[in-house]
């Protein structure tokens, strides 16, 4: 269990770079769509005394800790327990039409990753849960491994984790299940993966990293909801408003990059299509021609930041 102390509040990844791209305005209204432990929100509120933030997170435990951390800002911060897919509803409920900026950090929060109870990390033996909203009724990772077919499990691990040994892992999961030993804990899954995956001594990541990532993405439907969220976020911006997104794996980054490109007017239709059907329309300017990545100092201090990529856009028209 994580201690609820200030010492445990890890520094947000790409913190200064993100806030700089948001170009915080005095008296501006901002949304932190993935509040986590509140690091980005704290910096936004500290940058301009008149700024206000709507902090959204689907993890009730994160809301509780962030509320304590940000209590000094009083009514300048509003906490909402919801998935970021509810962005437009959240703004409407708070009487807000459009905002000056939004941020979304799509990684697993330190609170979740460091929990020894929720199954996000292979550092602890815990139930295979992996739900970002622990109080929801969506199937857990253990539920998926107990109900999906061998091919479906392999496809999840390969698509979302890019794990080349996905079929071997899936086969062993199903074999254990059929022998009356379903995989229900992180320790069981790790042992199975370590017997299934060949890694060279040069590999820098744990052999279970890709599979754990894949299951987390599948449990929380992270990929399916991402493009629509990006579009909703852009639609919620004022003219000149900015939206910054931090991703942590190639599939996420590709969706954000291509959605930004479509919203900046780039057409993805086949060359011979007589009429554009992909929905490309120039309503934003991409202000990060290449993704911003952590410095060597940051990756050395925080190895979790090594795969982070930050992209941002500016709203041009309504």
Order of helices and strands: HEHEHEHEHHHHHHHEHEHE
Number of helices: 13
> Quick one: biggest sheet?
7 strands, mixed
- Average pLDDT figure: 90
CA-CA gap between termini: 46 Å
Q: Give me the CATH architecture of the largest domain, please.
A: 3-Layer(aba) Sandwich
Fraction of residues in helix: 25-40%
Textual characterization of the structure:
- The chain is an alpha/beta fold and 318 residues long.
- The chain has 2 domains: 6-107 and 223-315, Rossmann fold (3-Layer(aba) Sandwich); 137-220, Orthogonal Bundle (DNA polymerase, domain 1), CATH 1.10.150.
- It has 13 helices and 7 strands.
- A 7-stranded mixed β-sheet has the order 3-2-1-4-5-7-6, sandwiched between helices.
- Strand 1 (29-32), helix 2 (39-47) and strand 2 (52-57) form a beta-alpha-beta unit.
- Helix 7 (150-161) crosses helix 10 (209-220), helix 8 (166-178) packs across helix 9 (186-196) and helix 11 (222-235) runs parallel beside helix 12.
- It is globular and about 60 Å long.
- The N and C termini lie far apart (46 Å).
- Residues 1-8 have low confidence and may be disordered.
